[in-house]
Design a protein that fits this description.
Layout lengths: L5 H27 L12 E2 L6 E2 L3 E2 L2 H14 L5 H17 L7 E4 L5 E6 L1 H17 L4 H19 L16 E2 H17 L5 H16 L10 E2 L16 H18 L2 H17 L1 E2 L4 E2 L2 E2 L5 E3 L2 E2 H16 L3 H20 L12 E2 L10 E2 L2 H12 L2
Length: 387
């Protein structure tokens, strides 16, 4: 590493360190304890003290995130049996969670019984995302997964398509409309677009990017809001003022990917501004972590820090560093070093492979189970570090 800038060298070491932690501690633990060997079903969380599964209903976002995590982990050099376990988990998820309409219900019990039959756009996005990863991992099933994903998208458009762009929350209409499900649908569309350039996914990516640039992101301030009325205008109540630093980073990462692929300078400028807002106002310097919520005047609304926000900070800093040069690149690399340190604070030292989810303003972690849903965020950050 002689002659390599300090921040770049530190990030290279961090990538190697986190890759080892993921492959040697986290994924083995979450396979052994986080997936039922008999049924293939995934547990919602593991006890932070014992590592044992918490037996409660599983939300629809958890199985596809776990499938993605193990398939991505296998690609990073993990065990061969992770692919097979992920395929079993995917098939069980599709069996348990698929509604008669072909969309995914909100939650199932540990025996596969549906306990919440609601249809949430957020959950559909993760189904599509996992199916894209599975189509890559299992090429012999690509046609099957592509057909299912295309049918899901068609159903979403017919049932929940918004007259302006994007999607409704429910039919009949339920407000507020949210930017967050669109963000994850954007991620899924970008994944499928790589596999099927001539399919419907590029148009979906463009549609959501356009919605973000014209509606979700404030035209004057450059920050991204969370909650909207039926015309994608900010909600008139306090919810319309919520700005989440983690989502500023996550949208910055996605818009940079899209902007590079389309040669769209407006998207890249928007991504840089989103990162600037998240980094300048959303980081608690005392604790060294990204907080949960700001108001639209950039005052802190919720000072709790969650693990996932630190991973999005890493991803955004790294991708923006790659398209930058000189001092600007060093700025992003230095920020990524800080973000890695923030993330590693959440890893449980007593039981490697587990993590804490919430850090209070008093700088204490809340004593609660480790949520399975965080693994996907960690894996995505490690992948970005290892690129």
């Amino acid at each position: 590493m002689e002659g390599e800038p300090a921040n770049a060298a530190a990030l290279k070491q961090a990538g190697e360190r986190l890759r080892r932690w993921l492959l040697e501690a986290a994924l083995p633990l979450w396979l052994d304890a986080g997936q039922d060997a008999a049924s293939g079903r995934y547990f919602e969380a593991l006890d932070i003290h014992t590592g044992e599964p918490v037996r409660r209903p599983t939300r629809a976002r958890v199985p596809p995130r776990q499938v993605y995590s193990f398939l991505a982990g296998a690609e990073l050099g993990g065990r061969d049996d992770w692919r097979r376990a992920a395929e079993v988990g995917l098939d069980r998820y599709l069996t348990d969670f698929t509604s008669e309409a072909g969309l995914m219900v909100a939650a199932c019990d540990l025996d596969g019984t549906v306990v919440d039959a609601g249809i949430d756009l957020y959950d559909q996005a993760f189904a599509l995302f996992a199916l894209a990863e599975a189509a890559t991992a299992f090429p012999e099933r690509k046609t099957e997964f592509s057909s299912r994903s295309g049918a899901m998208l068609s159903r979403l458009r017919s049932d929940l398509g918004h007259p302006l762009a994007g999607f409704e929350e429910a039919h009949p209409r339920r407000l507020p409309l949210r930017s967050n499900p669109h963000m994850h649908l954007f991620e899924a569309a970008l994944a499928w677009e790589e596999l099927e350039p001539a399919g419907p996914w590029a148009a979906l990516s463009d549609e959501i990017a356009g919605l973000a640039l014209t509606c979700f992101i404030d035209r004057d301030g450059g920050y991204l809001r969370e909650f909207f009325d039926g015309d994608f205008r900010p909600m008139a109540d306090a919810s319309g003022r919520i700005v989440e630093p983690g989502h500023q980073f996550e949208w910055a990462w996605l818009l940079t990917r899209w902007g590079v692929s389309r040669g769209n300078g407006k998207a890249l400028s928007a991504a840089r501004r989103l990162f600037e807002i998240g980094g300048q106002y959303g980081i608690d310097r005392r604790r060294g972590v990204a907080v949960m919520q700001l108001a639209d005047d950039f005052s802190v609304r919720d000072p709790v820090a969650r693990l996932w926000g630190q991973t999005e900070w890493i991803k955004a800093a790294l991708i923006l560093a790659r398209i930058s040069a000189a001092q600007e690149r060093e700025y992003y690399l230095a920020s990524a070093v800080q973000a890695v340190a923030a993330l590693e604070r959440f890893f449980d030292e007593d039981r490697p492979g587990l993590w804490r989810d919430k850090l209070t303003v008093e700088d204490r972690f809340i004593d609660e189970p480790a949520p399975a849903s965080s693994l996907y965020h960690i894996v995505c950050a490690v992948l970005e570090l290892c690129r």
